[in-house]
Specification:
The complex is a heterodimer of chains A (484) and B (242). By secondary structure, chain A is an alpha/beta fold. Chain A is built from 13 helices and 19 strands. In chain A, the strands form 2 sheets. In chain A, strands 1, 2, 4, 6, 7, 9, 11, 12, 14, 16 and 18 form an 11-stranded mixed β-sheet that branches. In chain A, helix 3 packs antiparallel against helix 10. Chain B has a domain of 133 residues: P-loop containing nucleotide triphosphate hydrolases (Rossmann fold). In chain B, 31% of the residues lie in helices and 29% in strands. In chain B, the strands form 3 sheets. Chain B has a 6-stranded mixed β-sheet, with helices on both faces. In chain B, helix 4 packs parallel to helix 5. The chains are: A alpha/beta (484), B alpha/beta (242). Chains A and B meet through helix 11 and helix 12 of A and helix 2, strand 6, strand 7 and helix 3 of B.
Chain lengths: 484, 242
Amino acid sequence: MSASLETQQTIRSLSDEGYKYGFVTDIEADSAPPGLDEDTVRFISAKKGEPEWLLEWRLAAFRAWREMTEPEWAKVEFPPIDFQAASYYSAPRQQATPKSLDEIDPELLRTYEKLGIPLREREVLAGVAVDAVFDSVSVATTFKEQLGALGIIFCSFGEAVREHPELVKKYLGTVVPQNDNFYAALNSAVFSDGSFAYIPPGVRCPMELSTYFRINARNSGQFERTLLIADQGAYVSYLEGCTAPQRDENQLHAAVVELIAHEDAQIKYSTVQNWYPGDAEGKGGIYNFVTKRGACRGARAKISWTQVETGSAITWKYPSCILEGDDSVGEFYSVAITNNRQQADTGTKMIHIGRNTSSTIISKGISAGRGQNTYRGLVRVQPRAQGARNYTQCDSLLIGDRCGAHTVPYIEVRNPSAKVEHEATTSKISEDQLFYCRQRGLSDEDALSLIVNGFCKEVLKELPMEFAVEAQKLLAVSLEGSVG
Amino acid sequence: MLEIKNLHARLEDGREILKGVDLSVAEGEVHAIMGPNGSGKSTLAAVLAGRDGYEVTEGSVTYRGRDLFVMSADERAREGVFLAFQYPVEIPGVNNMYFLRAALNSQRRHRGEPELDAGQDLLQRAVNVGFSGGEKKRNEIFQMAVLEPRLAILDETDSGLDIDALRVVARGVNGLRAPDRAIVMITHYKRLLDYVEPDRVHVLQDGHIVQSGDKELAAELERIGYATFGDPGGDTAGDAAA
C-alpha cells in the first residue's frame, strides 16, 4: 500500500469528517510518512492548526508544483532528487540534548573556537538545552517587551498566522507567488516555519533582528518561509543564519524570503550561511535552493541584501530587488566561497520599474579546491524606468588550478536614459602576495586570511559589525588547506 | 650573525644558480653584494628569505647560531630576517597600516612582547596599490623601520629610483644601522653605496663570490666592469688587483 494511502486511512479512522477541512488536530503521528501529495499538504496544515485560507494557499501551490518541471539551466550538477522519498513534516525533536559541551564533537568545538564564537553561544549552537544556558524565558521576554513597546512584531511565521493573520494574508506571496518557480512552489506547499516581522510606520527597529533570538528556530531549517514588512519610513536590519557549521539530516533546503519596503522604508537583510558542505567529495552536503526577493513598493524605499555563503554542497539563489517606487534603491553584496567540491550558482536580479531607481551589485566569488563558482546576474530596465542607474562589479578569485569561476551577466535595457556599468575581474592568489606576507612574519594561514579578507572587504563592511568579525574568521576557516 | 658556507642552490627546473657562495656578516656591519645580471644576486636573497621554488643542494647557512634552513619563511621573518623586495607586490583591499601592524604583532607575539594597539594610521591606502616604484621602495624601508629586523637584505633597493628618492631611501637605511643589526645590500650599481657606505663589498659572479674588499672595490668595479672580474666559467678567483 502506498505511504500516502496509509496516511489517509489512518486519518479517516481518527475523524468523522474525512479530509474536507484538513485533518483533526489530535493526530498523534510525529512525522508525515515519506512522499508528497495533497494529503501531505493537508496533514502539515492541520498539524499546525492553520486557517482554511492558508491551507487553500498551500494547495494551490502544490497543484502548481505538480505541473512544473525542475529547472536545469544553472551551472550546478547533482543527482536527481526523489521528491517522494523525503518526509515533509516532522515535529520539533524531543530527543535527549547534550548536557554540556563535554558531550560535543571536539572538532565542532574547535571550529567554534576558530570562529571566535562566544562561549555561551557555543553551547546553544551545539544543542545544549537552552534553558541550561540562558534563562531563556527572560531573554525572550525582555526582547519582546522592547520590540512590543515600539509596535514591532517579530515572531515565528506560525505565530504570525495565529496572531496577525490579516498581515500575513495581505503580504504572503505578493513578492514570490506560489507558482514563481519550482522550488518556491514546493516551499509554498510544505513550508515548515520561518520568521515574520512587521515594522510600523516611522519606526526604526532598535536592534538587529536575528533568527538566533528566535530560540526555536534551529528546528525549522528545511523549508523556511520568511516575510518581513517595513511600513512607511521604517527601518530594520535582519540577520539570518550563523557562522557555526550546521548539519541537517534533510538535504534539500528550499527557503523563500519575501521583503516589502514601503515609501521611505529600508530593509537590510544579511545572511551568513555555513550549512554542511559535504565531505571532500561533496557527498552528503546540503542543497541550498532559495528564492529571495524584495519589493521596493514605495518611493525612496531601499532594500539591501548582504550574503556570505560558505557552506552547502550547492548554493543556488538570487536575492533580488524589484524597484517599483520612484527613487528606490536595491543593493546586493555577496561573498561566495566554493572549496573542495562545492558548487555555487548565485547572483541577483535588479528590476528597474520606477523612475530614477538605482542598484548596486558587488559580488566576490572565491573558488578553491575543485569548487565551481558562478555569478549569474540580471539587470533589467523596463521601458518606463526613466533615469535608471546600475553599477555591477563581479570579481573572482581562484585559489589553485582545479577550480572554476564563471560569470553570466544579463543586461536588458529598454529605456535609453539608463546608465548601466559592469566591471569584472578574475585573479589568482599569487605566490608573490603570499610570500610577501610570510616574509613579514605572517603564517601561511594568516597570510591567506589577510588577502582573502582584503578581496572581500567591500562586502564584509556591509555586514552588521558584530557579525563582521565572525565572518572574517569564517572565510579563513572555509579556505583552510586550500593553499599548498 | 650570518654565516654562509659553500651554498649551492638550484631552480625547480634543475638549473644551478648558486655555486658555492661563502659570506660572513657580523652584527653592526653593512655589506654590499654586486654583480651582473644572472649572477645569482636575487636568488641569494630569495634563498635566504625562504622563498619556494629553490632547492639548496649543498652548503649551509647559520643565522644567529641557528640553521636557517630548518625554519620556514615566516619563522625566519619572526626571528628578525627582513627582505626588502626588488618588486614589492600589491595587495588590494589590505590596508597598509593594518598589514604592518599584523606583521609586527606576529613578531612581537613570537618574542613574547606585548602587541601594539591600533595607533595612528598614517597610511590608509592598500599595500603598495597605486604606489609608484619609488614609493614602493620607500614603503619597504618604512616597513623595515617598524619591524626592526636583525638581518636586513635589501634586494636592488636602488633600482628604479631617481636621485632624490635614492637619497631618501639611503637616509632611511643609514638611520637603521645599529650595533645589533646587519644589513646586506644587493645592487648592480655603485650609486647607493655612495650614500650608504658598506663595510665590505663582495662581487658575485656566476653563482659564487669571486672577490671581496672594502668600499674601494665598488669604485674599481665601476671603472673596470664585471667582465674583468673572475671567469664566466665559474672558477674561484683570487687574483683581483688588476
